[in-house]
Specification:
- The protein is α+β, with helices and mostly antiparallel strands.
- 50% of the residues lie in helices and 13% in strands.
- The protein contains six helices and five strands, in the order H-E-H-E-E-H-H-H-H-E-E.
- The strands form two sheets. It has a three-stranded antiparallel β-sheet. A two-stranded antiparallel sheet has the order 4-5.
- The chain is elongated and about 75 Å long.
């Protein structure tokens, strides 16, 4: 899908004043963050991100309409400044004809990229049960390999897979901790959602309800 179609599709959702808009660009998390920044300029706020599609290859970002007065002021100012957005005109925070953030929007896009990456990585951060299942699978693999290989070869192969799992778990956890540190430094605070997953919110924001991210 072209840049123009991504932007036009997002702005069509916004124009209908939907309580929730969905962003699902093909490509990197950076593209999703750039589009999320555009939605923010029209009075929306980041809700959550997750992977979907074939083999979880697509990043889906959900934005919620911000009911606060300053969001409506921001929306009105954006509409006035970018009357042709989505029709070939300028788009808030983005270079003309691309999803590359302009210098004044680079910081906001970087924060949104961290929020998106943190939430998306939750799929790959193993809890205790996931680790048990992973290591159990390694044990089963070792038993199966004993049919065709010597005990030393089977144990070595199963151990190598277990080591790779351990490294993957740890690398993911380290990366997510670094993102959490950056979000905390940027003024976000951490909470646990209904599933017990760690989330980061802006001051004054609460976990999204059915359509209102500021509702109790």
């Amino acid at each position: 899908m072209s840049v123009e179609r991504h932007i036009a599709g997002l702005l069509q959702q916004i124009a209908r004043q939907q309580d929730i808009v969905e962003i699902a660009p093909q490509g990197s998390t950076a593209k999703a963050a750039a589009l999320a920044q555009v939605a923010e300029q029209y009075g929306y706020t980041y809700g959550t991100a997750y992977r979907t599609g074939f083999r979880n290859s697509l990043v889906q970002v959900r934005m919620y309409r911000d009911p606060r007065p300053d969001a409506r002021v921001r929306e009105a100012a954006t509409i006035t400044a970018h009357p042709q957005a989505g029709n070939g005109g300028t788009v808030p925070g983005l270079a003309q004809g691309s999803l590359k953030p302009r210098p004044e929007a680079a910081g906001a896009v970087a924060v949104l990229k961290d929020l998106i990456t943190f939430d998306v990585m939750a799929l790959y951060i193993a809890d205790r049960s996931q680790k048990v299942k992973g290591y159990l699978a390694c044990a089963v693999l070792t038993v199966i390999l004993l049919i065709d290989k010597t005990p030393i070869e089977a144990v070595a192969s199963g151990g190598a897979v277990a080591l790779l799992l351990t490294v993957a778990f740890e690398v993911g956890a380290i990366r997510r901790r670094k993102i959490a540190q950056r979000l905390t430094a940027a003024g976000f605070f951490s909470v646990r959602d209904e599933q017990g997953s760690l989330r980061f919110l802006r001051p004054g924001q609460q976990l999204p309800g059915h359509s209102n991210p500021f509702a109790a």
